[in-house]
Write a structure and sequence with these properties.
The protein has about 800 residues and is mainly β. Helices cover about 5% and strands about 55% of the residues.
């Protein structure tokens, strides 16, 4: 490592705290509520609460403690009290704000500070910004406006970048393993698609994923379901409950809103290399900062990664290469244009298959369970290749009269090539029938969201009014292939030449068009926060009949969705709330008679309680809900058709805590109780519980700083038993897994190592063999084996 670079890293790191609160004048008294805590965090809290810029040395501040501070004070008065006895003083900066330094040092201006690289800027938090630690205070996933989470009348969780870095998930699904209400074991160890069941509703259409405020437009009725790499994401907001009011068609359990890494005004550089079990090799880079010679108006970010490795299953590999460039133009505080692109190539798509319950959950068939590494497919006909491309922009402008207009746009396309042999039913005492499935697909789509936001008052009530119109268009074309394959013996498999005869080819043409007009008003009156909204959607689906060349199944219609909720903010930090919300989801699927399924419709009532302790270093919440979905259908496995089954009701309780307990300990905890049943169904399933819905789930994750530069994270995840089929004839046993993470700042070994970190991660520490879930008695999914990885990253 060059000496000049380490010398610069040894300079004092400067953190610039910028807030956008209404009170931005340091001479104006403001309400201050800061808990006793390390001085750097106390200064950060003061900057956020006052809206005043504060420049200080993290080396000086992080080793001192700040006292508790409550009252209506000017920023100078607050600084004097915070710094009392610390040996530091605050001095005004030219152009506004303050600088904090030793009492005997000469007055400083921001221009006189050493020019250094800042590795972590404490910026005023927004709904899309980076967050220090595991706790985020704001979200836009529910309201499309920047709103404090405690003021949202529904259940919200945020997985921060710090949590992603510490836990090292390989997919979006894995990143949500410690969030309540989310079942991440729908397809076991596979990472090919992002399945995110919420509140007991199993989704195959990926209609609940959002990237940067726009639906991703995957098509769950085909193989064109798109993924987003976690390394390229800044944060993941999980919003539970129907959400059609702002996003149109949507799954009933909620949505998962990802925010991409964005350009930063300060230089940032990071590279990392990971080696792990299953021959995993991964590397990534993340660079950002201002564009030179652009006068500060332009900034950029370029993030990329690549990985390759084996999987849990024999003969199957997984690989990915992705890059996401972005460029932002922000000439003033009122106009912002963000240009974004995303490219991803998955040459090896990993494993996506299942095995019968009789050789996984039980030993009824052969007297033993097949190993979790067993591959029921065939290496001679096994491929999944996917390419994804996205380009778009986000534009925002605020007028002098407080109107803000936004337009978000994205165009995307993907291509998929599939070759797969899969098992379906028994051919003999130990042999499985096998069939062939293949596809060549192309997806193209685009979506645009136009918004107008106005903030105003009517008497004592303050309003944030949002109105918008959005449009989605998606088209999947290509061909599907099917045929017979040779059977396979689960005790003595023999591979090679699996395809029997020629394959049947069917053309694919699937279209979706949606236009939505919506309005929402968020009202702040005294300590009350009200949210009310409505949306009118017009949708159309067209699907070429299976095996036809010019015969389409069509559905078109319109639907109105509503949402209303209220929150009351107590001085103590408690915030009880109640809400009602609706959603719908038109279907491109067909029943066994070849008719298009009716759109599902959902309604939910939710009540809950949130608590944010003084000082703002955590939040705890509990939610009770009653959610009903009509026109439910389930997949007839082994066919492209679905079977209408009626009406499902899910009632449950979700609890979550995200807390910073002192300076050295962070805690995540969650508990989920889900009571789901068919309240109207055919074939005797009424009163039964849908498959893949564990009744109870719980998790705990702690991150403890053992000593300066060394922290240990440890987690336990428990998933209760679930039914293997809708007839409730067999239960999948509960399982409990442990995870471990160790992070070491290599600066402990000398100043030449500043900026370098070593991370060790272990998932499923005990290497437990377990079945994650079953989609029927014929399709059960093993969970992943123990995964060990070591990551070396360097930031400068």
């Amino acid at each position: 490592m060059p000496h000049s670079l380490t010398a610069r890293l040894g300079q004092v790191a400067t953190a610039v705290l910028v807030a956008t609160a209404a009170c931005a004048q340091s001479a104006t008294p403001v309400a201050i509520d800061i808990a006793a805590q390390p001085l750097d965090k106390a200064l950060g809290a003061l900057a956020r609460q006052s809206g005043v810029r504060i420049v200080f040395s993290t080396d000086l501040a992080e080793t001192r403690n700040g006292q508790a501070l409550t009252g209506t004070l000017t920023v100078q008065q607050a600084l004097d009290r915070l710094l009392a006895g610390s040996g530091l003083v605050a001095r005004p900066l030219g152009g506004g704000g303050y600088t904090v330094g030793p009492a005997g040092s000469p007055p400083a201006d921001s221009a006189a500070l050493p020019k250094v690289t800042v590795t972590a800027s404490h910026l005023a938090e927004t709904a899309t910004s980076s967050v220090a630690g595991y706790f985020a205070r704001r979200t836009a996933s529910v309201t499309k406006t920047d709103t404090p989470i405690i003021e949202v009348p529904q259940s919200v969780s945020v997985v921060t970048r710090q949590q992603i870095d510490d836990q090292r998930p390989a997919s979006l699904t894995e990143a949500l393993e410690y969030a309540p209400g989310v079942f991440t074991g729908q397809v076991g160890a596979t990472n090919r698609y992002d399945y995110v069941p919420l509140r007991g509703f199993i989704e195959t259409s990926t209609d609940n994923t959002v990237l940067d405020g726009l639906k991703i437009l995957s098509d769950g009725g085909s193989y064109s379901s798109m993924q987003v790499e976690p390394y390229l994401v800044e944060r993941i907001d999980v919003y539970r409950g129907p959400s059609s009011v702002l996003f149109g068609r949507n799954a009933p359990g909620g949505l998962v809103a990802m925010t991409s890494k964005r350009p930063t005004p300060e230089p940032y550089r990071q590279v990392e290399v990971t080696l792990g079990s299953q021959q995993r090799r991964q590397a990534g880079f993340d660079v950002a900062g201002p564009v030179a010679e652009a006068g500060g108006a332009w900034s950029y970010r370029l993030t990329g990664m690549g990985r390759d490795g084996e999987t849990l299953v024999d003969h199957v590999r997984e690989s990915r290469y992705a890059v996401a460039p972005s460029l932002q133009y922000e000439p003033d505080g009122r106009t912002r244009l963000l240009l974004q692109a995303y490219w991803q190539n998955d040459p090896e798509g990993g494993y996506h298959g299942g095995l019968p319950a009789e050789v996984t959950v039980t030993t009824a068939r052969t007297g033993q369970r097949v190993p979790r590494s067993f591959f029921e497919g065939d290496p001679d006909y096994n491929a999944f290749k996917r390419k994804q491309r996205m380009v778009g922009y986000q534009f925002e402008h605020t007028f002098d009269n407080q109107w803000t207009v936004r337009q978000n746009f994205r165009y995307l396309e993907s291509s998929v090539h599939l070759e797969q042999v899969y098992a379906y039913g028994w051919a003999g005492p130990t042999t499985l029938n096998r069939y062939v499935s293949g596809a060549d697909e192309s997806l193209r789509g685009w979506t645009v969201d136009n918004q107008a936001q106005r903030e105003f008052s009517t008497g004592a009530a303050r309003h944030t009014l949002l109105a918008g119109v959005d449009y989605q268009h998606r088209n999947v074309t290509g061909a599907w292939y099917s045929g017979s394959a040779t059977p396979i013996d689960v005790l003595a498999p023999v591979y090679g030449n699996p395809v029997v005869g020629s394959l049947y080819t069917a053309q694919v043409d699937r279209r979706l068009v949606q236009t939505g007009l919506y309005a929402q008003d968020q009202v702040a009156w005294d300590r009350w926060r009200f949210t009310v909204g409505g949306r009118q959607d017009w949708s159309r689906t067209d699907s070429l009949k299976y095996g036809a060349t010019d015969d389409y199944l069509r559905w078109s219609g319109n639907k109105f969705s509503a949402r209303a909720g209220a929150v009351y903010l107590f001085d103590s930090g408690f915030a009880p709330y109640a809400s009602y919300s609706e959603s719908f989801n038109p279907s491109g699927f067909t029943d066994t008679a070849g008719q298009v399924l009716e759109p599902t419709e959902s309604r939910q009532v939710e009540v809950g309680l949130k608590y944010e302790p003084a000082g703002g270093y955590g939040m705890a919440s509990v939610a009770l809900y009653d959610l009903v979905q009509d026109h439910v259908a389930t997949r007839v496995l082994g066919t492209p058709n679905y079977e209408p089954v009626g009406k499902v009701r899910s009632r449950g309780l979700e609890a979550e805590a995200r807390l910073q307990l002192g300076r050295n300990l962070a805690l995540l905890g969650s508990y989920t109780l889900t009571d789901a049943e068919y309240v109207r169904a055919a074939d005797g399933q009424q009163g039964k519980t849908p498959y893949q819905v564990p009744r109870q789930m719980a998790s705990v994750w702690t991150d403890y700083t053992v000593l300066a530069g060394v922290s240990v994270g440890a987690g336990v995840r428990h998933v209760g038993s679930s039914w293997a089929d809708n007839d409730n004839t067999l239960k999948v046993p509960a399982y409990t897994l442990a995870d471990l993470a160790v992070r070491i700042d290599l600066a402990l070994f000398g100043r030449d190592w500043r900026g370098a970190n070593l991370r060790f991660n272990v998932k499923n520490v005990a290497d437990k063999t377990y079945v994650a879930s079953c989609a029927s008695l014929g399709y059960c999914y093993y969970g992943d084996a123990r995964r060990v990885s070591a990551t070396l990253d360097y930031q400068w």
